[in-house]
Amino acid sequence: MSSDYLTFSDLPKSILRPLGVDEFAAIIGVSRRTMIRLVKNGTLPKSPFHRSRSTSTPDAWPMMKPAACPMAYFDVTTGPLLSSQMRRRMIQQIGRILQGRAPNEIFEIEALRIDLPLSISQAVSRMAALAAAEAEVISDPGIRGGLPVIRGTRIGVYEIADLSKGEPDEYILEQFPSLTRTRLEHARLYAKAHPLPRRVGGSDRPRPPGIRTHVITTKLLS
Question: Does the global pTM surpass 0.85?
Fold first, then answer.
């Protein structure tokens, strides 16, 4: 196996924790709906699900252990190319690899060749990206009432993520000189992994609780 492959030992401890559905969706690069469907389909084994006594409401989605990330990533990217039986077999094999019960090597059977180390490495890389995004964002009551902002600025991550839905990156970077392309990516990733709660009985637009709405200008944010 190439030394260029990433493993769990390369990850910061901050990301090695139970993760929610939105965090998993952000890491894998799918929508929340797709991630929920993935969980409902039962392709993933039960072992990666984190059992918490605090999660007792019927509609609550279980937290998942970090080991579920490579499994889910493989299921989304490579799984559709395989038979359902082989798909489950490979996901179980990834689980054994992560537990140290199987070697992390390319799986070959007859003409079939599946690069499990590469798939695991790509999933780990995405987990590292979320960890970096979370480290880049702070929430300080003294800065814009505690709204999550990019570290060292007053730029709200949700505002930037919302703006990027309709504007090209070049325009956003021009309007906010303190932003870099990497920080812009971090803002989008953080906002997807930690979406704001939806309004009840009103607009579906997310809104941070307890924070008043103001007119924001680039001069104020920069």
Answer: no
Q: How many CB atoms lie within 10 A of CB 21?
A: 18
Q: 35-51, pLDDT tens digit by residue?
A: 998 888 888 888 788 66
Tokens of 94: 């990834």
Is residue 53 over pLDDT 90?
no
Q: What is the pLDDT of residues 186-209, one digit of tens each?
A: 999 999 999 987 655 544 444 444
Q: CA nearest 179: which of 160, 162, 192?
A: 160
Sketch out the chain's domains with CATH numbers.
8-135 (no CATH), 139-221 (1.10.10.10)
Is residue 88 within 8 Å of 96, Cβ to Cβ?
no
Q: Are 87 and 34 in contact (CB under 8 A)?
A: no
DSSP class of residue 109 equals E
Q: What is the Cα–Cα distance from 128 to 116, expressed in whole angstroms?
A: 18
- Using the structure block, give the residue that is written with the tokens 């939806």: 198
Three-state secondary structure string covering 64-103? ECCCHHHHHHHHHHCHHHCCHHHHHHHHHHHHHHHCCCCC
